[in-house]
Structures are given as structure tokens and as C-alpha cells.
Amino acid sequence: GYNGKSTLLDALALGCYNHIPGDGREFVISSPDTVMIRAEDGRFVENVDISPFIGNLPLGGDTTSFSTLNASGSTSQAANIMEAIQMGARVLLIDEDTSATNFMIRDERMQRLVKKDKEPITPLIDKIKFLYRDLGVSTILVMGGSGDYFDVADTVIMMDTYEPIEVSREAKSISKQDRTHRSCEGGDTFGEVRSRMPLRESFNPGRGKLGKVKIKSRGMKGIAFGYELIDLSWVEQLVEEAQTRSIGDLIYYAARELFDGKRTLREALGIIEEKLKKEGLDSLLPFISGQYAFPRKYEMAAAINRLTSLKCKRA
What we know:
The chain is α+β, with helices and mostly antiparallel strands. It has 9 helices and 14 strands.
């Protein structure tokens, strides 16, 4: 209901940034490695190993090296998680309202009807504990529709008319009294996280016969990169157009200087991030301007991952 769950999650998503006094969110502080995750029907995916969540695709599709021009809700959400982990995310924020239902939960009745060998999706509920145990990645999940997550939650907070109240003890008591009979489908480990190395030749910001470089932000929702439009509509932790303007030019810098087929995406963007922290935006961008703002490596990676000309090889 309207009790503030998503509002709190949105505040946590932007808690990776400092807020000015009087903003109202000064004390909402998140890890700088916090990433918002959602389903993103129709997004482009290039060579991502989503096998911890998706397997047994019809016609034998390989999910250890998954590519598509038009991802489904579940495959896009799996790709978003794996890409965030590849970049070093330590906290994932997930709202059931923007998630694929079949990615979040498969209840007992559905398990009885559709056996696991016929179902390609391993739902998040069966991997969420392994995310923390194996990879040290925490998850904050807004959920109002499935009490099955009580079984795997470490802490349960209930929003009551916009006031957060911890109810972990009550939730665990309910979980013990009314046990679910669904089977865990997640195996014994999370699975492998494979890094990728972008290939320089897949980045071309040139336009026209002379190949003039054309990179332009389209608000916070996109970047024109040559003939392509990078769709950032659902990259939710961008806060101003100056960031997308910086990202476009930094992608071009990375393609020229860092994407040599030997560095992973995380390594290359880590170099950029460190240089920006030490020397400022002017050190890497084409000219001094007050119209640039510091982007996080996660949003830089998100833009690169949505460039439909992108080609990567396995590290």
C-alpha cells in the first residue's frame, strides 16, 4: 500500500550522493557501491553470463554468454544484476514493483505444475543468500506481495504510514509457524561471475562521410553516440544531465585509451574513476566546461552496456 516503501528505496538509491542541508535526506547515507536493479524489457545485452539465474533456454541457448537485442523482463533483470556485480557492486536495491514477477519468486503450486527441468529461471529468492555468502553482496528488497522472503531475510522492516519499524522477530515467527513447502532451486552456490573486456572497434562516435565525432547528451535519458542513441531511461541513479554529458565523452576516452582487449570493463572504468578523483573532470574531458558532472563507474558501465554496437570478449 501507500506506506513509503518505494520512497525509502528511492532515497537509499540516491544516498550514494551527498545532499545539501535542508534537503531532507542528509542522513540517508548509502554505500558508494549501491546499485538500483530493475527489469528492463527490450534492453540490449552483450555477452553476459546470466547462468546463475537463467539456464535451459529453449533451443539450447547459451546463458553463460548471453546476448540479445531484446531482453525479456527476467533476462534483463538477471543481466542488470550480473553487470552490477562485475563492476564491484556491494549493495543491490530492488523494488518488486519494477521487477519481473517470475524472476522474484516461483511458488509451490507453480513448482508442482512446471518442474524445474522445464523452467529456465532460478528465482532471486533462491540465490539471494548466496549473493551475500559467496560474493559479499547485500540486497535491500522492497516487497509487499510475498511472505516467502521472510525465510531468507536477515532483517525485516515494515513501513507503517511512512515510519520504518523493525519486525524481524515477528516475521521469523510467522515463517516458523507457517512454513512454505516450496523447494529451493538455487543449488549450493551463487555461481560464477565472469568479467568481460570491451573491444575498441565496437565504439564509433563518427557521423557523415568525414566521420566527424558526434557525442551529445539527451537529458538524463540518453546519449547520442555517433549514429546510436544509448537509452538510459531506466538507469535510475543519474541525477543531472551534466553526468550523461560526461559519460558520453568518457566512453570515447575509454575507447581510445583503455579498451585494448586486455582490460576488463571494471579495470578500465576503475582507472577513469581514480584519475577523476585525483585530477578532476578536466583531466580527461575534451575541454574545460562547467557543464560536466562526476559520474559513477556504475552509470558509465550502464551506458556502455546499452550501446548496441558493443562487442565484448570473455576475460
